[in-house]
Amino acid sequence: MVVLNKIYTRTGDSGTTALGNGDRVAKYNARVEAYGTSDELNCFVGVARLEATGETDAALSRIQNDLFDLGADLCRPDMAADKDAEYPPLRLASAQVDRLEAEIDVMNTSLDPLRSFILPGGTALAAHLHVCRTVARRAERLAVLLAEQEEINPAAVKYLNRLSDWFFVAARMSNNGGKDDVLWVPGANR
C-alpha cells in the first residue's frame, strides 16, 4: 500500500531523484527519462478518456493501470536482485503484452486495410489517441536506449511497442471504424 503524508520532500532540490531501490540518480538519467515519459503518456491517456466511452474507456483505464506498472518496473534497476528483495518488485508481464495484441486483433477485424498513410485527426478521441501513439513511441525509444545501457525487463519494450500500435488502431476505430480517417495525399500542396 502506498501512503503519501507529505508531497514535497526537498530531497530532489539538488537535481537528483530516488529510484525504486533507493539509489539516487540525476533527474535526467536514462531510467528517469523512460519512466517519466511513461507517466507523461499516462496523463495523455487520461485526457483521451475524456472523449472515450464504453469498451474504449474501459480499455484505456486498463492501459493507465499498466502504465503505472510499467513505471514501477522501469524505476527499479538491478533485475538480478529481484529474487533477494524483501518485497518482489513489480515487473510488467508478457500477459499484458498479449492482452494488447488480442485487443488490436479484435479491433482490426472490422477495419478496411489502409491504402494510404493517415493524418492524425478526425474525431477528438482519434486525435488524442494519435498523441498517445506518438508519446508511446517516444517512451519506447527511451526504454530501448535505457536497455542499451542497463538490463531492463524485455516485456517493457514489447509493451510500449504494442501500445503504440493499439493507439493507432483505436484511433482508426474512433474515426467511424476508419471510414472518417484523414488520408495523406503525397505532394498535395506542391
Automatic annotation (TrEMBL):
Q: Does Nucleus appear among the keywords?
A: no
Domain named Cobalamin adenosyltransferase-like is located at 7-173
UniProt key word Ion transport: no
Q: Which reaction(s) are listed as its catalytic activity? A: 2 cob(II)yrinate a,c diamide + reduced [electron-transfer flavoprotein] + 2 ATP = 2 adenosylcob(III)yrinate a,c-diamide + 2 triphosphate + oxidized [electron-transfer flavoprotein] + 3 H(+); 2 cob(II)alamin + reduced [electron-transfer flavoprotein] + 2 ATP = 2 adenosylcob(III)alamin + 2 triphosphate + oxidized [electron-transfer flavoprotein] + 3 H(+)
What SUPFAM superfamilies does this protein map onto?
Cobalamin adenosyltransferase-like
- What are the protein's UniProt keywords? ATP-binding, Cobalamin biosynthesis, Nucleotide-binding, Transferase
Q: Which InterPro entries match?
A: CblAdoTrfase-like, CblAdoTrfase-like_sf, PduO-typ
Question: So, what pathway does this thing act in?
Answer: Cofactor biosynthesis; adenosylcobalamin biosynthesis; adenosylcobalamin from cob(II)yrinate a,c-diamide: step 2/7
Return the EC number: 2.5.1.17
Regions annotated as coiled coil? none
Q: What class of enzyme is it?
A: transferase
What Pfam families does the database record attribute to this sequence? Answer: Cob_adeno_trans
Q: Which family does it belong to?
A: Belongs to the Cob(I)alamin adenosyltransferase family.
Please state what the protein is called: Corrinoid adenosyltransferase
* Record organism: Sulfitobacter pacificus
The taxonomic lineage of its organism, from the top, reads: Bacteria, Pseudomonadati, Pseudomonadota, Alphaproteobacteria, Rhodobacterales
In the UniProt record, what gene is named as encoding this protein? pduO
